[in-house]
């Protein structure tokens, strides 16, 4: 499998220090144990919190608050009400990220709270699904 190729790589990068430690513990061998590295999360949380406070991407359309989005290279708007219970996640839109599981699980949240909204931000092969 893929792990048989690990000795041929210069570095094996994990998304966090914790993940790196797990990978070293579970899959490293004497040839690969020193190749594991971790990468800092590149998401700027302070910037995100500031944007949330500033409402920079929220506009009024026909008297209703909306947030803009891109779909099929078109800019569209999505209603964005203050009373809604909002959950936002971001990441690469690819099968291994499990957004399909999140969407399925979130349906239970919507049953308990009809005002719940899930916003998924990102790009990747599943963007148009």
The domain tally reads 2
Query: Percent range for helical residues?
Result: 25-40%
Strand order within the widest sheet?
A: 3-4-5
Q: How many beta-strand elements?
A: 7
Q: Residue ranges: pLDDT <50 for 5 or more in a row?
A: none
- Main sheet attributes: strand count, strand direction, barrel closure: 3 strands, antiparallel
> Structural class of the helices, strands and pairings?
alpha/beta
**Quick check: average pLDDT?**
80
| Strand proportion | 25-35%
Radius of gyration, taken over Cα atoms and rounded to an integer in Å = 20 Å
Q: Which outline best applies?
A: elongated
Number of helices: 3
Q: How do the SSEs run, as a string of H and E?
A: EHEHEEEEHE
What are the key terms here?
129 residues, 7 strands
Structure description:
The chain contains three helices and seven strands. The protein is α/β, with parallel strands linked by helices and 129 residues long. The chain folds into two domains: 2-38, no CATH class; 45-121, no CATH class. Strand 3 and strand 4 form a beta hairpin. The radius of gyration is 20 Å and the shape is elongated. It starts with 11 loop residues before the first strand and ends in an 8-residue tail after the last strand. The relative contact order is 0.11.
């Amino acid at each position: 499998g893929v792990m048989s190729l690990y000795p041929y790589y210069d570095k094996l990068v994990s998304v966090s220090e914790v993940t790196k430690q797990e990978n070293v513990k579970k899959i490293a061998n004497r040839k690969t144990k020193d190749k594991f590295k971790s990468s800092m999360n590149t998401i700027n949380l302070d910037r995100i919190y500031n944007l949330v406070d500033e409402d920079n991407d929220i506009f009024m359309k026909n008297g209703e608050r909306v947030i803009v989005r891109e779909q099929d290279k078109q800019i569209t708007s999505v209603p964005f009400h203050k009373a809604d219970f909002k959950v936002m996640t971001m990441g690469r839109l690819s099968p291994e990220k499990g957004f399909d599981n999140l969407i399925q699980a979130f349906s239970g949240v919507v049953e308990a709270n009809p005002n719940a909204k899930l916003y998924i931000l990102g790009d990747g092969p599943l963007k148009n699904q």
